């Protein structure tokens, strides 16, 4: 993984569902909170984008991809979206506890 700062995180996958007029949409996330989110916030000073997003490289199992984490008002930490392709490759579902490496 490339990046200046790396973090090891274990978190539970949760599902966010939007019941729109046309059809419901579901997204899978992990929440990064506590001390790790404070360290990420410090490491990312001056590197955040729109909506406070922080570009990251993530590794779960053998899968590595680039994405962004986003501030999470409810926890005070960040949320990481987990793409369907990653979930399929790694056999991940809502409710699973997942270990990941995150590089900023």
What attributes does this structure have?
104 residues; alpha+beta; Elongation Factor Tu (Ef-tu), domain 3; seven-stranded antiparallel beta sheet; 2 helices
Q: In a few lines, what is going on in this structure?
A:
The protein is an alpha+beta fold and 104 residues long. The chain contains two helices and seven strands; from the N terminus they run βββαβββαβ. The longest helix has 10 residues.
What does this protein structure show overall?
With 104 residues, the protein is α+β, with helices and mostly antiparallel strands. The chain has a single domain (6-103), classed as Elongation Factor Tu (Ef-tu), domain 3 (Beta Barrel), CATH 2.40.30. 16% of the residues lie in helices and 47% in strands. The chain has helices at 34-43, 84-90, and strands spanning 6-12, 14-19, 24-32, 54-60, 63-71, 78-81, 97-103. The protein has a seven-stranded antiparallel sheet with strand order 1-7-4-5-6-3-2. β2 and β3 form a beta hairpin. The protein is globular and about 40 Å long.
Topology:
Layout lengths: L5 E7 L1 E6 L4 E9 L1 H10 L10 E7 L2 E9 L6 E4 L2 H7 L6 E7 L1
């Amino acid at each position: 993984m490339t990046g200046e700062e790396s973090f090891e995180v274990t978190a539970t996958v949760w599902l966010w569902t939007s019941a729109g007029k046309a059809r419901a949409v579901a997204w899978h996330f992990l929440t990064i909170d506590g001390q790790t989110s404070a360290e990420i916030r410090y490491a990312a000073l001056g590197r955040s984008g729109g909506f406070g997003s922080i570009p990251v490289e993530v590794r779960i199992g053998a899968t590595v991809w680039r994405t962004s984490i986003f501030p999470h008002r409810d926890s005070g930490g960040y949320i990481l979206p987990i793409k369907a392709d990653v979930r399929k490759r790694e056999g991940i579902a809502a409710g699973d506890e997942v270990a990941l490496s995150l590089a900023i």
